[in-house]
Amino acid sequence: MRIIGIAGSLREKSFNRVLLRHAVNYLPDNSSLEIFDLRRIPLYNEDIIQTALPDSVICFRDEINDSDAILIASPEYNYSITGVLKNALDWATTNTLGNLLVRKPIAIMGASIGAWGTTRSQLHLRQVLHAANAKVIARPEIYISNAKSVFDENGFLSDEKILKRMRDLMQALCN
Amino acid sequence: MRIIGIAGSLREKSFNRVLLRHAVNYLPDNSSLEIFDLRRIPLYNEDIIQTALPDSVICFRDEINDSDAILIASPEYNYSITGVLKNALDWATTNTLGNLLVRKPIAIMGASIGAWGTTRSQLHLRQVLHAANAKVIARPEIYISNAKSVFDENGFLSDEKILKRMRDLMQALCN
Amino acid sequence: MRIIGIAGSLREKSFNRVLLRHAVNYLPDNSSLEIFDLRRIPLYNEDIIQTALPDSVICFRDEINDSDAILIASPEYNYSITGVLKNALDWATTNTLGNLLVRKPIAIMGASIGAWGTTRSQLHLRQVLHAANAKVIARPEIYISNAKSVFDENGFLSDEKILKRMRDLMQALCN
Amino acid sequence: MRIIGIAGSLREKSFNRVLLRHAVNYLPDNSSLEIFDLRRIPLYNEDIIQTALPDSVICFRDEINDSDAILIASPEYNYSITGVLKNALDWATTNTLGNLLVRKPIAIMGASIGAWGTTRSQLHLRQVLHAANAKVIARPEIYISNAKSVFDENGFLSDEKILKRMRDLMQALCN
After folding, report:
1. What are the CA-CA distances from residue C50 to residues A122, B30, D13 (Å)?
2. What is the spatial distance between Cα B135 and Cα B102, in angstroms, rounded to a whole number?
3. Which of A123, A135, A139 sits opposite C133 (nearest CB)?
4. Chain C residue with the nearest C-alpha to that of A132
């Protein structure tokens, strides 16, 4: 079982990247999680599909195509997912090249430094992934608020309840 | 009255770019509309704010800051706005540099080649702009479906009802 | 396979009620569809749960509990589902009595007299049903616009494409 | 300035009703707040408009019509507003009798016993009120989580930050 991890933030020390790395500890047997860096993905532009599709996009789409499942962790910007994440999903689903998310198992989670734990952006992310006809894992839901106090200085997460949920989510994703 | 126009699509012949250009014909006196090209805006990344903020971002934020109003036209991808547009809005509203959209008058419209006329993405765009505390014009709403038959080969739009609405929208934006 | 049909409108000649009745023709073998009338369901009120739960609510919850699947057809009011439908869903999912929609297979469709075919209310209905942890059928989606011209005077629907989708939806619901 | 208060919950001791009652303390001079009880409003049904419109609906619509502004407080059920509230809004906006919310100033707030403070239902409520073309106050936003610990046994709310926001909201509503 090959899982691709995608973070909605490009920040090196992003809590959502850290979250993805924690998920590695909760993989079922015979499964692997590789985090794909969205940094080199260009802005979506249908014109460049016709002329010269960037290697980064080809690589991103190949990775998704070769994966059995996807794990997404994103912060919330303006009550929604980040433009960075939406842009990557636009590349993954474009009609011109083919929608790679059809029936793809996808699990989602999110951490925010504020009080509302990315509840609103995850609501929206589920809509976007429904539009893409992905197979989104419904439960458990993982909303982490006040990230600065939940993660310690070394980016370590020790909250038992959250870790338990993460284990359950990875189990559900790999079933 | 200086208005900045933003298209959610980077495609040269995008119907939504064309829509922005039509809006120029319906500006009230003493107002101007300049279309800002999002092509050079990089993916949002808080780390590069600290190191070297790209000129394109500085320029984008200056344009927004100097404008009196914004006009947005976006296609709908996956029942939502494009990642390209969301990414630009993330740059415009980032806490680190300051949210430039607070109480900024913004008008929105959208065209799609399908049957549903960007109804869903505009619903979401209003949420995002509310989150940014922008002053979004409520009416009229402009949803253009079946764009391929509404625009002629030269990208010309002659539908009287839509053009009337565009005039009303620009009037509302400039009041 | 016992399916319960729920219409979001109480109007006798509601297009969405008619839609439910058409679905009967597309049931797979060994399945039945019974339309439940929401007319006697009272407004949700937790206080009356404690004192005297109305028979209509007991009956509604029994029907849902005994069903294998649910089919919902709702008009769109104010870009959302009707209060009538939301009120019924609130009764079906209340913590106090137990959420009966957990993992319940649910199919949705909708007809509107306007141009946008309940696209926005179905988007929202999927959110509500996700919150209830129901198992909502993802595809096909059935959006019927301009209902007055799609249904004939006797409420008969002959559009082959829509009927084909209805057959596919019932198949998916019963699988 | 006559303000009508509407609670999304019918429960006698509902935190959201209590919230409305607290708002009375923060009214600007020369304004009044009267809480309208939705208990007797029937389920929306276009057929009864034609035959015998219930007095409760006539009264509700008269109250809204005579008011200068509306204040809404609602719990969150299934990540959305309650059916009770949506049903009342459907009556207030029906095409058949006329949409009474056009440009009506409306302020919203909400309390939940859970952790997420009605963030999701308020997001949706703003959509519904935009659809109705109401004039919804954008800021401040009031989200109250963990209501059981925020309100004391007598339903008294003493959190200074929340009360400050309530004062600001009432000020914004009456301007």
Report:
1. 35, 65, 13
2. 7
3. A139
4. C138
Q: What gap in Å lies between CA C15 and CA C117, rounded to an integer?
A: 12
Composition of chain B by helix, strand, coil, percent to 5:
45, 20, 40
Q: What is the pLDDT of residues C22-65, one digit of tens each?
A: 999 999 999 999 999 999 999 999 999 988 999 999 999 999 99
- What is the pLDDT, as a whole number, of residue A72? 98
Map tokens 């999912």 to a residue.
C93
- Across the interface, whether the CB atoms of A133 and C139 are under 8 A apart is answered yes
Rounded CA separation C165/C157 (Å) = 13
**CA-wise closest residue to A147 among A120, A121, A108, A110:** A110
Q: Is the ipTM of this structure higher than 0.95?
A: yes
Sequence-distant (≥ 6) Cβ neighbours of residue B79 within 8 angstroms? A127, A128, A130, A131, B120, B121, B124, C123
Radius of gyration (Cα) for chain B, nearest Å?
16
Give the count of beta carbons closer than 10 Å to the beta carbon of residue C150.
16
Q: Do D117 and A120 touch (CB under 8 A)?
A: no
Inter-chain contacts counted by CB atoms under 8 A, chains A and C: 16
Half-sphere exposure of D173 (CA within 13 A, CB side): 35
How many angstroms separate the first and last alpha carbons of chain B? 10
Burial class for D153, CB neighbours closer than 10 Å (0-12, 13-18, 19+): exposed
Nearest-CB residue to C127 (from D12, D80, D85):
D80
Tens digits of residue pLDDT in D39-78: 999 999 999 998 899 999 999 999 999 999 999 999 999 9
Q: Can you tell me the distance from the alpha carbon of D138 to that of B129, in angstroms, rounded to the nearest whole number?
A: 11
Question: Residue D88's closest CA among D51, D129, D123?
Answer: D129
- A41: closest CA among D34, B58, B84? B84
Asked if D44's CB is within 8 angstroms of C43's CB, the reply is: no
Which helix (H) or strand (E) is B66 found in, with range?
A: helix B55-66
Q: Can you tell me the distance from the alpha carbon of B168 to that of B160, in angstroms, rounded to the nearest whole number?
A: 12
- B89 CA to chain A: closest CA distance, Å? 8
pLDDT tens by residue, D99-112: 999 999 999 999 99
* C36 and C67 Cβ atoms separated by less than 8 Å: no
Q: Which residues of A touch D146 (CB under 8 A)?
A: none
What six digits make up the tokens of A89? 């999903």
Beta strands in D99-170 (DSSP E): 105-111, 135-136, 143-144
CB nearest A83 (choices: B12, B79, B86): B86
Residue in chain D lying closest to A79 (CA): D123
Q: What local confidence, expressed as pLDDT, does residue A50 receive?
A: 85
Phi, psi of A4 (to 5 degrees): -100, 130
Report residue C97 as tokens.
Answer: 């009595």
Quick one: pLDDT at residue C153? 87
Q: Kindly state whether A127 is in contact with chain C, defined as any CB-CB distance less than 8 angstroms.
A: yes
Tokens coding D94 = 């029906």
Task: Please choose, from the candidates B28, B42, B50, B30, the residue with its C-alpha nearest in 3D space to the C-alpha of residue B166.
Answer: B28
Which residue in the set B78, B85, B124 is minimally distant from A93, CB to CB?
B78
d(CA B92, CA D105): 28
In D, residues 72-111, which contact C (CB 8 Å cutoff)? 77-90, 93
Q: What is the mean pLDDT of residues B18-42?
A: 96
Task: Kindly report the three-state secondary structure assignment for every residue of A29-92.
Answer: CCCEEEEECHHHCCCCCHHHHHHCCCHHHHHHHHHHHHCCEEEEECCCECCECCHHHHHHHHHH
